[in-house]
Design goal:
There is one protein chain. The protein has about 500 residues and is of the alpha+beta class. The protein contains 16 helices and eleven strands. It has helices spanning about 1-10, 55-65, 125-130, 145-155, 160-180, 195-205, 215-225, 225-230, 240-250, 260-280, 290-295, 300-325, 340-350, 355-370, 380-395, 440-445; strands at about 15-20, 45-50, 70, 80-85, 100-105, 110, 115-120, 135, 185-190, 415, 460. Helix 10 (about 260-280) crosses helix 12 (about 300-325) and helix 13 runs parallel beside helix 15. It is elongated and about 145 Å long.
Length: about 500
């Protein structure tokens, strides 16, 4: 605050402030007065302050009324301070390097660490004249700073009156005259500005001030809902409704890291999915989405419809995670996967407690965890989960998330099992392999003739892809085990005996 006042006294730029013209159809926020304004008619203000709230609030409190500013110290402790300008230090210019602005407690008495006065007392106008410290409220007071300087000169004796007159003249030249022409630049947005553009202002421009996010914007939007006010004679307070969510989250340690944005995304997914289901027009149906612009487009009636169901779904999600041996927030693989879990619980209802449906939801959950699907951008994955997983889990639709849209081009492994009793998994695509008798093997003939006596053909088995996602293809032996990669001898072919040595030629 001291640096802000020094910048104004020196004539340095304060920074651009941004306002929004009210009365538009795209944005309607609940106006909140600047702290310290008091009773004012804010039913229909002309403009709203978007950027520069902290600076203008601090200046208004320090320059108007009693000049008491509500602020915090370095440790975050709240305190009330008053500010004074050292007239004698500013006589030769504010750039003199001396301490020109003083910060004192509300009563104007400087104290030590244990609350004892340290010597500087500016609690009364007489003490201020004696010390030469002007309250900053006198700079823009109705009577003007010149009246304070006149009383400052009169408080001194005849010997010091001439010296104080010179100080007053220098203060008027170096401070009061430049301050009378000080201007603050302002950007004014007209009433046609969209809500997405206002959100960009808060997230991109207002980086050095109060951290305002989508939740804060929806808080202001819902509070300004005229239909709700006409029906209930009061504004809707999103912060009070969030306290109900927070109570449920605090009761489950595994949900400790769930954020406000996660709940808003779940509500937006339910609202957009319901709008897509109810759409019956000729054009393109609205998309299921959880993007920022979709969250900002969430209406109050949609929020009121889905919020109780999502709040109850939090209990089921906590129980589901406990069943997966996940008991704390630090053990949760991906916090963002809680969002589609909430939506699945609402969409499936009590069917999710059925054994078959529950098993498929568990399979979907661990496929997402082991596949690291929720480690990056998740908005698109949320939409796919909401549209595909409920029908697949309840077997209402054959299309499921676990079905690979791009099947592998690699052919399934095929291994010969030389056993007539081995069942074939699929019809053979090639001619069956023939096992030749020992007589044919001794002659060395390999072409069909009348002397060949083939035995029963052996069948070749080729496995298909497993219906369980992620299972590998394997060839099964008659006993149920996995077939070896080496070729097995047909049981119809006896073991070949070693031939007797031929006698030497004579």
């Amino acid at each position: 605050m001291v640096q802000l006042l020094v910048s104004v006294l020196r004539g340095h730029p304060l920074g651009v402030v941004m306002t929004l013209e009210t009365g538009g159809h795209f944005v309607r926020f609940k106006p909140t007065p600047i702290a310290g304004v008091g009773a004012a008619d804010l039913d229909d203000p002309d403009s709203l302050l978007l950027d520069g709230q902290q600076r203008l609030t601090s200046l208004f409190q320090s320059l108007d009324g009693a000049g008491v500013v509500d602020t915090v110290d370095a440790r975050g402790k709240k305190m009330r301070r008053r500010y004074f300008v050292d007239v004698e230090a500013c006589a030769d210019g504010v750039d003199s390097g001396e301490k020109v602005v003083l910060s004192l407690p509300e009563d104007g008495v400087e104290r030590e660490s244990f609350g004892r006065p340290s010597g500087l007392d500016l609690s009364t106008p007489e003490r201020q004249y004696a010390e030469g410290k002007m309250p900053v409220t006198a700079l823009f007071a109705p009577s003007g700073a010149m009246t304070w300087l006149f009383d400052y000169n009169s408080a001194a004796g005849d010997d010091a009156n001439l010296e104080r007159s010179a100080v007053s003249k220098g203060f008027n030249q170096h401070v009061l005259l430049p301050l009378s022409g000080y201007q603050i630049p302002m950007i004014r947005l007209d009433k046609t500005t969209t809500k997405e553009a206002v959100a960009t202002v808060f997230e991109k421009v207002n980086t050095g001030g109060l951290p305002l996010d989508v939740f804060e914007l929806l808080t202001a939007t819902f509070a300004g809902d005229a239909a709700y006010y006409q029906q209930h004679a009061r504004d809707f307070r999103l912060g009070d409704d969030w306290a109900l969510f927070q109570a449920v989250i605090d009761s489950h340690p595994v949900l400790a890291d769930v954020r406000k944005s996660d709940i808003l995304q779940a509500l937006t997914l339910l609202a957009t999915a319901d709008a897509r289901k109810r759409y019956s027009g000729a054009g393109k149906a609205p998309a299921t989405s959880a993007r920022r612009e979709s969250v900002l487009g969430l209406e109050l009636d949609q929020y009121l419809r889905w919020a109780p169901e999502v709040r109850q779904a939090l209990h089921w999600v906590a129980a589901f995670l406990h069943a997966q041996s996940i008991h704390t927030a630090t053990s949760l693989p991906y916090r963002t996967q809680v969002v589609p879990l909430l939506v699945l619980r609402v969409l499936l209802g009590d069917d999710i407690t059925k054994h078959a449906v529950s098993q498929r939801v568990q399979r979907w959950y661990w496929c997402g965890v082991l596949g690291e699907r929720y480690g990056g951008t998740t908005e698109t994955k949320f939409a796919l989960d909401v549209e595909q997983v409920p029908g697949w889990a309840s077997q209402r639709s054959p299309l499921g998330m676990l079905k690979n849209p791009r099947p592998s081009r690699k052919r399934p492994s095929s291994r010969a099992v030389c056993c007539p009793s081995a069942p074939a998994a699929r019809p053979p695509t090639k001619a069956p392999t023939r096992c030749w008798s020992p007589a044919v093997r001794r002659t060395g003939l390999r072409t069909p003739s009348s002397t060949m006596r083939p035995t029963r053909p052996c069948r070749s088995t080729s496995t298909t892809s497993s219906p369980v996602p992620g299972a590998s293809s394997r060839a099964l032996t008659p006993s149920g085990g996995r077939a070896s990669s080496t070729r097995r001898r047909c049981p119809n072919t006896p073991t070949r005996r070693s031939a007797a040595p031929r006698p030497p030629r004579t």
